[in-house]
Automatic annotation (TrEMBL):
Catalyzes the first step in the biosynthesis of NAD from nicotinic acid, the ATP-dependent synthesis of beta-nicotinate D-ribonucleotide from nicotinate and 5-phospho-D-ribose 1-phosphate. Helps prevent cellular oxidative stress via its role in NAD biosynthesis. The keyword Acyltransferase does not apply. Transiently phosphorylated on a His residue during the reaction cycle. Phosphorylation strongly increases the affinity for substrates and increases the rate of nicotinate D-ribonucleotide production. Dephosphorylation regenerates the low-affinity form of the enzyme, leading to product release. GO terms for cellular component: cytosol. The gene is LOC113394701. This is Nicotinate phosphoribosyltransferase. It catalyses: 5-phospho-alpha-D-ribose 1-diphosphate + nicotinate + ATP + H2O = nicotinate beta-D-ribonucleotide + ADP + phosphate + diphosphate. Gene3D superfamilies: Aldolase class I (3.20.20.70), nicotinate phosphoribosyltransferase (3.20.140.10). Residues 371-472 form the Nicotinate/nicotinamide phosphoribosyltransferase domain. It comes from Vanessa tameamea. Belongs to the NAPRTase family. Pathway: Cofactor biosynthesis; NAD(+) biosynthesis; nicotinate D-ribonucleotide from nicotinate: step 1/1. Pfam families: NAPRTase, NAPRTase_C, NAPRTase_N. Keywords: Glycosyltransferase, Ligase, Phosphoprotein, Pyridine nucleotide biosynthesis, Transferase. InterPro entries: Aldolase_TIM, N/Namide_PRibTrfase, NAPRTase_C, NAPRTase_N, Nic_PRibTrfase-Fam, Nic_PRibTrfase_pncB, Nicotinate_pribotase-like_C.
Amino acid sequence: MSSDRKNNIREMARQNGIVQPLLTDLYQITMAYAYWKSGKVNDTAVFDLFFRTNPFQGEFTIFAGLEECLKFLENFHYSDSDIEYLKQTLPATIEYEFYDYLKDLTCKDIKLSAIEEGSVVFPRVPLLRVEGPLIIAQLLETTLLTLVNFASLMATNAARYRMVAGKHVSLLEFGLRRAQGPDGGLSASKYAYVGGFDGTSNVLAGKMFNIPVKGTHAHSFVTSFSTLGDIHSGTLRHADTETQCDFLKMVLECRKRVSEILDVSPEEASDGELAALVSYAQAFPAGFLALVDTYDVKRYNIQGLASRHGQRTNGHSGYNSNCGSNGHSIRSLSAIRSARGYSTFERTLRSGLLNFCAVAIALNTCGYRAVGIRIDSGDLAYLSVLARETFNQVAKELDLPWFAKLTIVASNDINEETILSLHEQGHSIDCFGIGTHLVTCQRQPALGCVYKLVEINGQPRIKLSQDVGKVTIPGHKEAYRLFGADGHALIDLLQRSTEPAPEVGQKVLCRHPFQESKRAYVIPSKVEHLYKVYWNAGKICTFPKPLVEVRERVQTSLRTLRQDIKRNLNPTPYKVAVSDNLYNFIHDLWLQNAPIGELF
Ligand SMILES: Nc1ncnc2c1ncn2[C@@H]1O[C@H](COP(=O)(O)OP(=O)(O)OP(=O)(O)O)[C@@H](O)[C@H]1O
Ligand SMILES: O=P(O)(O)OC[C@H]1O[C@H](OP(=O)(O)OP(=O)(O)O)[C@H](O)[C@@H]1O
Ligand SMILES: O=C(O)c1cccnc1
Ligand SMILES: [Mg+2]
């Protein structure tokens, strides 16, 4: 680990100022006092942090948030003002020596073991194991949970979007305005990137986490221009010759030419919109990506869409004909036209596309290549195909092959189902800009990680429940991932830490933790020990990987899962088992702890 990297972690830790010891539930501090008062200062404990159910009706979860947990441990310290606040807030009966004790608390005696960040993980397998003094380990609960729960939920959500989108489509996170407050927005941007998004519109996230920042422009930019008279200056410096071009004149000539090619009247295009696009192109001649739906008749084409967020049934499927750069089928426009039978298609996007093409061609004459368009309303399958056909036509007529490859960005309330449906229908979209449903985790707003005591002073602890799924697996454990003959992950196995690790080629009995009859022998082709010690003796001992490597880890880890475990509808559950020894240990302890009732 270079000193640069260490400094970098410290630097980020400072910026993440909201994560601090008081970012917790009051009951952690009141329990700490009661532990302290009852002489438990030297008690040692083991806590497991795990979840019981995968989110989004899926069968896998991506573990994220570890780096933030380490920063939290590194900085754990009650400041003078924290102590002052607690003195004012807790009952006056609290002994002052407790505050002296709190003042000196750090995580120097804590040991944290964890699964590698970015790995696929499964219910009941602890993501973190925290060992050390009971009081401090207890004080960490809420903060560790808040750092892992949303991070893992978001990374999982983003990974699911990536899976349905496929690897050839770009995904941009646009959610800050809709996120659960500023910190939710920042975390959403970070973990959307980890889960497989390519960039974010969130500038602070870009700066803090070194995530690519990307963006287009809004409708307000277009509507702020009314006429061509709003253009400040009609000129643009040529990219190569550096001479001033009469850009506006070129654009107007190009508009005339394109309107002939597309057989639409230039009078039907908005001059205010053209003024906006010209001005944007002058500001960003080499990065011109324009929103083209401001003045278009969109509703004609959205009539068939069923409900806002549900499955869309607009009679689109079944026309797939060829394949676009995004790897998804594209129907030809004539197929759509004849299927829909309406004649209004010529009016769709006529203003925006015409104006965009005019500006893009004029830019080309000045030595620049436009990037593309964004569509933010209407039927995104249909409009993207319409746009691509238009680009193809211009490319052919004007002998500008690159025009056919212009980027088409789509946004507007997109979720996993929309992407699946668009793929089914066929579209020509290269990039999705996704906000609300991604960052608010529309399909499941919380992951249910819990933090449970599994051992105290070397003695195992079990939490019993009527609901078997809620019974905790006691004791200090290790977790292993066993791989099958075909190289896929087969099962996760929990064992008591005193047991020898499973070995490649050696038969292991894997048992369902609670159902006696469910068991299987596994001969692993590979065994992965899931835990590494990340924090010990007051310092980070395994340094977390840079975000971009965590992001890669997500994809490599997902590749180890069989397809049926990852599919969207009714996925197969992945198996999590315990060793025979741990099975017997759990059930003996269960019997010891379950009270024997009396019948009268
Ligand atoms: N081809 C399609 N298949 C399935 N869903 C689509 C398709 N095209 C668009 N959608 C989705 O349909 C919804 C369209 O939203 P809505 O009915 O509000 O129309 P709109 O074009 O956004 O109108 P406005 O711009 O006036 O708000 C969005 O959630 C969008 O993601
Ligand atoms: O739709 P989302 O997935 O949340 O993506 C982000 C949205 O935010 C922007 O506009 P905004 O929604 O603020 O205004 P608009 O709907 O009027 O375009 C953008 O145009 C997208 O539509
Ligand atoms: O850059 C964009 O196009 C953008 C950014 C945030 C929200 N919607 C769109
Ligand atoms: Mg919107």
